[in-house]
Specification:
heterodimer; A: two-stranded antiparallel ribbon; B: Rossmann fold; two-stranded antiparallel ribbon; 10 strands
Chain lengths: 211, 215
């Protein structure tokens, strides 16, 4: 199974968002005043929505080293400090949420195959419910999903480091289906299905055997 | 002007964008949760414990927070909360942030005491957007300000040790920093005036140079 380190700043409910299953084992690494984690045992580094970007900046060299070992990071947060190589997250309030629609740009790994993009666009009839802001990237070929104004929303960056960074513009994601298939039809269910596509992508890339 | 309100900060982007907005930046100081000391807190008129806080880390500084209250000051707490802080029990509930589309006559808050200074003059849509959990127990003789349709407590106020705690499971600070809901200046600006006597003015803005920063 994949071994994932989840960076935790103890926000309410985080322990329920990443529950280990046959595909992926999650370990929550809890931030403290002198946070100095060891990532050696992990394949995936996971930065959830609502993370502590002060602590992440302090360990940015460790994160860069982890990625340059060819490993994978999922970041589903709005990173206002400069710890993500080659990519910057920005937010403005110059565009109305009612006008937000996403489109697939470069889906090299067919991650959106079988995914209902309309559920990313609307939840209970409301648009602009998911991601916040957008990503300024030095790797334009890495844009998987963009918004109405062609601003990058999901990035699959294989060139800023020797590893892979999967970045959303503060688009929350978690192992919401807990590694099983659900017939649930809400937008959060679709986000959970897309997350499983990300996990399956890394499982295949890393040639992991699921027992 | 010295900053009037300390915002306990868990490194979360929406806590950051709120405090850095030009209309609030001279009022608020971000207090990183690992930097809390009694002396540091004492310089502020009021504290805010926002949604998405590290409750575990904050409870480690319970004595400093109670000392702050004992100086006759105010604390506003939003979203979720640690039971150990103020003897109130918070419980999670599903977040309904779409009721205004699917069921506009049944908001998650059924009762609001509009006589409270923060709520006085607010339209109902400015006093209720969505909530993060409920309180199933609050200090005895706490003033109940908002409740759900089935009587669970959303907002309460209590005088503790000579200071005042106003707690709600609404999330005005963090949601205002997110800017998906555009009417929150009504609530936050009345809250800020109640907390420290300063009336913010102007529109909420993000500043480009606040992103991609080195700390």
């Amino acid at each position: 199974m994949l071994k994932a380190a989840v960076i935790s700043n103890n926000i309410e409910g985080i322990e329920n968002m990443f529950i280990s299953n046959p595909k992926i084992n999650y370990t929550l690494l809890e931030i403290t005043a002198n946070f100095n984690p060891d990532f050696a045992d992990y394949d995936v580094l996971l930065v959830p929505n609502g993370s502590d970007n002060i602590a992440l900046f302090k360990i940015r060299d460790k994160i860069a080293q982890f990625l340059n070992e060819g490993k994978v990071m999922f970041c589903f947060d709005g990173w206002f400090t400069n710890w993500v190589p080659g990519n910057k997250w920005i937010i403005d309030n110059n565009h109305k949420t009612i006008d937000i629609r996403y489109h697939v740009v470069n889906d090299k790994y067919k991650l959106f195959e079988g995914i209902d993009l309309d559920k990313f666009n609307f939840s209970h009839g409301i648009s602009g419910w998911w991601a916040c802001g957008f990503i300024e990237t030095t790797q334009p070929e890495s844009v998987l999903l963009a918004d109405t104004w062609n601003r990058p929303i999901i990035i699959i960056d294989e060139h800023s480091t020797r590893g892979i960074m999967v970045l959303t513009a503060s688009g929350p994601m978690a192992d919401l289906l807990f590694g099983t298939n659900s017939e649930g039809q809400t937008s959060w269910d679709e986000i959970g299905r897309f997350y499983q596509k990300l996990v399956d992508f890394v499982v295949a890339r890393n040639k992991i055997v699921i027992l | 002007m010295n900053k009037k309100i300390g915002l306990l900060f868990n490194g979360v982007w929406s806590q950051y964008t709120f405090a850095k907005a030009p209309k609030y930046v001279n009022i608020f100081e971000l207090i990183y949760v690992y930097d809390i000391t009694p002396k540091y807190l004492s310089q502020f008129d009021a504290l805010i414990i926002p949604f998405q806080s590290n409750q575990k880390a904050i409870v480690e500084h319970k004595d400093a927070i109670l000392s702050f209250l004992a100086n006759g000051k105010k604390i506003f707490m939003e979203g979720d909360a640690a039971e150990e802080l103020f003897d109130a029990k918070w419980e999670d509930r599903p977040v309904n942030n779409y009721w205004w589309v699917t069921n506009p006559d049944n908001p998650p808050i059924a009762v609001t005491d509009y006589s409270h200074p923060v709520y006085n003059g607010l339209m109902p849509r400015h006093a209720c957007w969505h909530t993060h959990g409920v309180y199933t127990k609050v200090p005895q003789s706490a003033q109940i300000i908002q409740q759900t349709p089935n009587g669970e407590i959303i907002t309460w106020q209590h005088d503790i040790l000579g200071g005042t705690v106003l707690a709600t499971t609404l999330d005005p600070i963090v949601e205002h920093g997110i800017q998906q809901i555009t009417h929150l200046d009504n609530y936050t600006d009345k809250l800020i005036y109640w907390l420290c006597g300063v009336q913010p003015e102007g529109k909420f803005e993000f500043v480009l140079s606040d992103f991609g920063i080195t700390v």
